[in-house]
Amino acid sequence: MPRLESRLNPGIISVLQTPFDAEGHFDSASMGRLVEDAIQSGVNGFLVPAVASEVAFLTEAERFEIVRLVANVNAKRVPIILGASAYEASECQKFASLTEEIEAAAWLVAVPGELYEQPDRIVPFFQEVSSATETPLIIQDLQWNGSGLNIAQMEELQQALPTLDGIKIETVPAGPKYTAVRERFGDDFFIAGGWAVPQWIEALDRGVDAMIPETAMIPVYAAILNDYQTGNRARALDRFRRLLPVLTFTNQEIGLSIAFFKRLLVRRGIFKHDTMRLPGFTWDRYNDRIANELIELYFELENEFGGHD
Fold first, then answer.
1. Which of 97, 139, 157, 251 has minimal Cβ neighbours within 10 Å of its Cβ?
2. Which residues pair with 192 in a beta bridge?
3. Is the pTM here over 0.85, yes or no?
4. Residues forming the annotated binding site for pyruvate?
């Protein structure tokens, strides 16, 4: 079974934010700049689209358009994980053809939130999903305030799904679960983290294959990872701790996270607008000020060690 490139070398597989113009339409030029900037900055792969892409607010046609554009700009330079999550298995299957079309390394489907309360439906759901393609499947175990799938459920899924290749763990707490999954399923099982990026050094210590954060801060993420991978854990930890105020602020909730990183991408000259489709978030004079201060902190860090020195 094919393995992700990052399976052999722990890395950063980032979620690509979706740029919109002032009227809320998809901005293909900004997306092209985002992909190119991330590759030049040292990203190890992409996940597209996913929660941070505002995927719930994209049309089916837009999802196809975005994936194809990303694949064209990427031109096979780094592996792509196709995000195909939806509440209905039949909806997930619609995107299966894209995995072959763009030669995706894998595709990712999240456990629908309601199924955590109906565990007998989880295996049938993924059996139906995975029947659409032989492309390796990664399950996104996302429960913002819960423990998600247990080991027994994962064992059942592995036995039932021949193409299951790994898991993206986004549960509370994440760290011990990384270790439990690695010990049970071995080194060939792909393990990634995401929302727990404020615990990234712990994740690396526990042997995750990849962290899947957003894409605005790849120059700094890549510098930290380079330190860690070349044996300088102390400097990686020091640099990571200096980034933590940004991560702590942005991990309060997903709306704030998307808004902050879109603002940062505008400041970096990659996005033209910071338009969001996700409803419900607003800036006020307090969080607006903190966000601007933290963006200045980010630029200080990028200027200091964004070159991997």
1. 97
2. 168, 210
3. yes
4. 212
